[in-house]
Amino acid sequence: MEAKKIPIHNKHKFRIGHxxxxxxxxxxxxxxxxxxxxHKKSAYVVTPNVDHILLLEKDEEFQQAYRDAFLVTCxxxxxxxxxxxxxxxxxxxxxxxxxxxxxxxxxxxRNLSVAVIGGPPGAAEGAKxxxxxxxxxLNIVWTFCPPFGFEHSHEITNDIVNSLxxxxxxxVFLGVGAPKQEKWIxxxxxxxxxxxILGIGASIEFAAGTLKRxxxxxxxxxxxxxxxxxxxxxxxGPRYLGNFRFFIFVAKxxxxxxxxxxxxx
Length: 265
What we know:
The protein is α/β, with parallel strands linked by helices. It is built from 13 helices and eight strands. The chain is globular.
């Protein structure tokens, strides 16, 4: 029997540092991921934010995970702004927290199965309950909260891979934090026989209601990071303060972009 061809997605990309971000809308991304479902050779989706872009500058394993991703979408308004400054505008932000409900809506209408893995104890099950209420008929076949350090356990990793391969969900949402989730997916990518796997960070907690997402106006203005910082300043403060380096990073890229023109003058 002839093997199914793996669908080819939009090749137009915005490059920033070591990330090549697909130039897609949320609607485009949902269509591409849903179209992939049914191919039991797994592919994965990553959603870079500012923290990812900076981590990629010094982490070669993380870089490789990004290079092999099926789809890379923009999860961060500063990245969207940077794309416009650098002359390759992305159409909109496509975050993991937007992809998860949009894909669950499609899954409920198309009879696709879903697995939810990650978050603190109870979050995955809470997300299942809330998503099932929002999207009647949604088939969530498995939820699991991996213990801390699971990525170093051969036994737990095998249990997760075996469970996914037995259940073969069309969509897998994995939220265990970056860069852990992306590296773990990449490391075991050839072992999976399920559909599309998405690294979605805190989206499971948003879906469960254990973590409150910023109001829409904060999101549109690019202040979702500030809203989250105010919720958890001790944990997120050092990370977000460090992320001001991103604006210096973009300024250097912009200057480098102008230099060839200056030399010609």
